[in-house]
Amino acid sequence: MAEAVREAVDENDGKRDLAVAVDGSWQKHGFSSKNGLVTVTSVDTGKVIDVEVFSKHCICPNKTKHLQNCERNFEGYSGKMEVAGALSIFQRSQSLYNVRYKKYLGDGDSKAFTSIVENKVYGDHCSVEKLECIGHVMKRMGTRLRRLKTKIRGQKLSDGKPLCGRNRLTEAEIDRLQAYYGLAIRRNLSSVKDMQQAIWTIFLHKLSTDEKPQHGFCSSVSDTWCKFKKAELLGETYHHKNSLPVDVLEAMRPVFRDLANPELLKKLFTWRYAKS
């Protein structure tokens, strides 16, 4: 794998501080598997640069006195294999390849990343930065809106109606908003400001009505995705069909505010080799 590391360094303009993706896999679904492995892959090349394999399988006649060639090298909850493997791989990166994995791409709630940070694998003055995968961040829109539904279930908004229901925040509407959020990010990866504006454009679109259109942020070019702007360019009248009530949107505003936070958006990183 030394050659894969050299390629990653070359792709990184010779710099030995690399961006990597960490992934854990198990022989069987769930965390009851006796075998698992952790891979670290270069974000720049898509090639695996280190692997840690774990097994809880033991064929020794005496289970309390393991043979020298016993395959068992892990005890405990199988789900912790990813944590142990990632930590081990990061800790040996300098001695093995003379590189540091300073940017970490992994699951949104990765315990492995927390372990790496807490153990200060590269000392007190070198921190590992967590990158955010678009796919993971995109799903947060759906997760946050569903959590909002659960949180205020049974409550009435200022208009005397619940958050959910016909022409309000339905599951189909949540799926659409999540998809729009992902598009707003992917179409504006070169600018955090443009990304943030595109996200708030979604909010304003849902707020727009025939009486009070809210399309100030929408593009006016001929191939614009905004149907209101497209109709305007063609001299036609557009009728809003998918607006949400003001009170529903106000309940959703904190979710949009959090997910349009520049501190979150600037951490986004497109990993073109990520799993679908």
Q: What does this entry show, briefly?
A:
The protein has 276 residues and is α/β, with parallel strands linked by helices.
Descriptive report:
The protein starts with a helix and ends in a 7-residue tail after the last strand. It has a 6-stranded mixed beta sheet with strand order 3-2-1-4-5-6. The protein has 10 helices and 6 strands. Helix 5 runs antiparallel to helix 9 and helix 7 (192-207) runs antiparallel to helix 9. The longest helix has 18 residues, at 134-151. With 276 residues, it is an alpha/beta fold. The protein is elongated and about 80 Å long. Mean pLDDT is 87; it is low at 271-276. This is Mutator-like transposase domain-containing protein. Residues 9-226 form the Mutator-like transposase domain.
List its traits.
6 strands, six-stranded mixed sheet, 10 helices, Mutator_transp_dom, Mutator-like transposase domain-containing protein, elongated
* Number of continuous helical runs: 10
In whole angstroms, how far apart are the ends?
A: 25 Å
Query: Mean pLDDT, as a whole number?
Result: 87
How are strands sequenced across the largest beta sheet? 3-2-1-4-5-6
Element-level helix/strand string: HEEEHHEHEHHHHHHE
Name the structural class.
Answer: alpha/beta
* Overall spatial form: elongated
**Whole-angstrom Rg:** 24 Å
Uncertain segments of ≥5 residues (pLDDT<50)?
Answer: 271-276
